[in-house]
From TrEMBL:
Protein name (record): dTDP-4-dehydrorhamnose reductase
InterPro entries in alphabetical order: NAD(P)-bd_dom_sf, RmlD-like-bd
Segments forming domain RmlD-like substrate binding: 69-299
Entry superkingdom: Bacteria
Region of interest (Disordered), residue spans: 1-28
Source species of the chain: Streptomyces rubradiris
SUPFAM superfamilies on file: NAD(P)-binding Rossmann-fold domains
Pfam families named among the record's database cross-references: RmlD_sub_bind (PF04321)
Transmembrane segments: none
Taxonomic lineage: Bacteria, Bacillati, Actinomycetota, Actinomycetes, Kitasatosporales
Amino acid sequence: MAGPLGDLEAGGTAEPPPTGFTDPDSLTGGIHPGRLVVIAGGATTSTVRRLACPFCHGQHADPLPCTGMTVLIIGGSGFLGAELVRQATSVGRVTATTFNSRPGQAPDAPWHRLDLRDPRRLGEVIDTVAPSAVINASSGAADWAVTADGSVRLAQMTARRGIRLVHVSSDAVFSGASRSRYDETALPDPVTPYGAAKAAAETAVRLLHPDAVVARTSLIIGDGDSVHEQAVRELAAGTRKGALFTDDIRCPVHVADLATALWELASSDATGVFHLAGPDALSRYELGVLIARRDGIDPCLLPTGRRADTRILGALDVRLDSRATQGRLSTRLRGAGEFLDTTR
């Protein structure tokens, strides 16, 4: 490889190239030979099957954190964040959470307004809550300042304070060019601005906070209130334009399963990359049919199309392989064929 990175691989003394983030550059001085492996190396996962809680030094019968562990949820007013808060507060666990525009519905969790673009405010929230662990379930879409830079700041601050970090990522970090499923060792190759921001965030988290968990997931489905389920109902009713693509493949996961798995990881001493997606690979149309049948809607009302025939940017076939992660967790990640089946 030519250029500075090639010189570093060869053990040269080229000026370290920038990481692409202002704060990490001031902290690390750029990419050095000893750190290049951290950024470009394949992802690894913990080999621990039954995960021990590092805070009470015991084993949990359930995946939720022990009562002596305070957890801060970044993005608690979002779809996933709200489920994380619900599960914790329903059993009396100590949880604090953040919101950007308006707080969520959970009255038992203290809410803190936070814009991840504001490092001063982020530090204030962390120091006020003094958490044992932080779960970053925020969604800044393709906004680099939130999705990428915000995750960098959070990784820096939690690492400096010795706070455990679980960073939620996405299958959008992959291009879909692979002919096989993407397991936890697959390297990101995004094709969208959102995917690029999530991939950059992953790299920064693993560089700045080596003991953190990066948890990639896929389409998140609930019991009728996810954006995907709402879209199916609106398309069937004719109140929304568009189509459900037959060539856009993902591995949907139920929000309750995902949240439970994230709590299990947050309560553990596991580190590295984990995949939290369902085992069923479905097209958007196939998923829509399952949702329609559950909701008593005629699937014939759903408009179909091919994403390849449009100019919509994005990966077509991204199948997360979660088998290695599933083998390490007690939480079972159900497939959409199971959790959307009304006959069970």
